[in-house]
Design a protein that fits this description.
Elements lengths: L5 H12 L3 E8 L2 E6 L5 E5 L6 H16 L13 E4 L2 E7 L9 H7 L2 H12 L24 H15 L8 H12 L9 E4 L8 E3 L4 E3 L6 E4 H13 L5 H9 L7 H11 L1 H12 L5 H26 L4
Helix pairs in contact: 4-8, 5-10, 6-11, 7-8, 7-9, 8-11, 9-11, 10-11
């Protein structure tokens, strides 16, 4: 969403909610901090038209469910947090005031660090089943699709197919191999399901003075619980394999992965990274050949992460 759209969104929020907005600060693509002169700041997410207002209303319903269970997630800013501007839904949530950037790492460690993050994911996966949007299929990366992880993989395959004409003859073999790898990814079908966040990683953690708060719940819903755990383990294991231990020590306070989940962990952990690699290829940031090389590195990494997880958890159960 271009930055010049911020004034239009600012006017919409002021008119729709009757609030005084005096500043709009870009946080991410389509995401702004809304500085208010008459109350606490908000966060506004202006989604693409591909996500209908009903779907974004489901995001808000899930946030209300999390609030009712005292889960540390962002909170809806108003009783009716979803509106529509130019055919695109807008969601407003409360601004979770972070500690200063230079104190973020210290604050996360003070809250329990990776163990706390893993414990929160385990707690999320043990919340009681809900109805409505809480029970909708979820887990996919909302920039590509809503729904189960299989929808994310299908969307990535379609994206690659649509971009096929862009690659020179010298990249055709690598392109075809990349398409096959993406199509063959494990979407964690048939594994235990729970309410889950599609991107439960440190990038979506706000470190406040009191705790860590999880944000960006778009496309959350009920899906394979291992999908989000696997990506969290990948994200941290890629930095240092020892970080896997911290995540799992917290997660197992609520959930012990099954033997089948451990058996499929390596394959599932490489799914999101390969989807992101496919995204990079289709947006011209990487060649298919480079993508295949990265995929091989990711495979080796996720196999080592899965082996470490099995040791930490004491083998199959």
């Amino acid at each position: 969403m271009p930055g010049q759209r911020a004034p239009r969104l600012q006017a919409h929020l002021a008119d729709h909610y009757g609030v005084q907005v005096d500043a709009m600060t870009d946080l991410d693509v389509g995401v702004w901090r809304v500085g208010r002169a008459d109350g606490p700041d908000w966060v506004a997410r202006w989604f693409p038209a591909r996500r209908p207002a009903e779907t974004v209303a489901g995001d808000a319903e899930i946030l209300a469910y999390l609030a009712a269970h005292d889960f540390p997630a962002e909170r809806c800013a108003t009783p009716e947090p979803v509106s529509v501007l130019d055919g695109r839904p807008v969601l407003v949530t409360e601004w979770a005031e972070p500690v200063p950037r230079e104190h973020r790492r210290e604050a996360i460690r003070g809250a329990g660090g990776l163990r706390r993050l893993g414990e929160l994911l385990g707690r999320l996966h043990t919340l009681p089943p809900g109805t409505g949007a809480v029970a909708r299929p979820g887990g996919s990366w909302h920039h590509l699709a809503d729904g189960l992880p299989s929808a994310e993989i299908t969307a990535a395959s379609r994206m690659l197919a649509a971009a096929g004409h862009l690659f020179p003859d010298g990249e055709r073999v690598a392109y075809d191999a990349l398409c096959a790898e993406v199509a063959g990814l494990d979407a964690a079908e048939g594994l235990p399901e729970a309410l889950t966040h599609p991107d439960f990683v440190l990038a979506n953690v706000v470190a406040t003075p009191a705790d860590i708060v999880l944000v960006d719940w778009a496309a959350a819903g009920r899906g394979p619980r291992l999908w989000s755990l696997a990506f969290l383990l990948y994200a941290e294991g890629a930095k240092d394999p020892r970080r896997v231990d911290g995540v799992l020590s917290g997660y197992r306070q609520h959930v012990t992965p099954t033997g089948e989940e451990l058996d499929r962990l390596a394959a599932i952990a490489r799914a999101r990274p390969l989807v992101l690699t496919a995204w990079a290829v289709c947006t011209g940031r990487m060649t298919p050949s480079a993508a295949l090389a990265r995929s091989a590195e990711t495979r080796a990494l996720t196999e080592s992460i899965a082996a470490r997880a099995r040791v930490v958890l004491g083998g199959s159960r």
